[in-house]
Task: inverse folding
């Protein structure tokens, strides 16, 4: 059974930092592209950052230069370092595991974790 468990969320003030972690189990972690999505109240879920099996990263324009995704295949974990947080970064953050197409499987999702940026 595949599990993705996020941790590290919370309440911070504007300008502060948080580091989200996602621990994966039940899958061959190293072959998956891992992503971080967020959903703000009343808005659709959006891709924040992704990191491929080879370590290539991609970021939403709104977080470019402030957020950094990384992965540790030895620990089956992916991370999102979030710096200079702003109120518009508030939302539920979800970890996503996107399998190679050749496997013919659907993506997996974590349960989500709340990040609130407020003064």
Result:
């Amino acid at each position: 059974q595949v599990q993705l468990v996020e941790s590290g969320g919370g309440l911070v003030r504007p300008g502060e930092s948080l580091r989200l972690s996602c621990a994966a189990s039940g899958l061959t972690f190293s072959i998956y592209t891992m992503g971080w999505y967020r959903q703000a109240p009343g808005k659709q879920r959006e891709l924040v950052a992704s990191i491929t099996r080879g370590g290539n990263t991609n970021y939403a324009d709104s977080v470019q230069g402030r957020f950094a995704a990384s992965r540790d295949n030895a620990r089956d974990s992916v991370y999102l370092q979030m710096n200079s947080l702003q109120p518009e970064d508030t939302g539920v953050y979800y970890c996503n595991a996107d399998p190679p197409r050749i496997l013919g499987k659907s993506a997996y999702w974590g349960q989500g974790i709340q990040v609130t940026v407020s003064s």
The first strand starts at residue 3 and ends at 7. The mean pLDDT is 96. The chain is about 0% helix and 50% strand. The two ends are 40 Å apart (CA to CA).
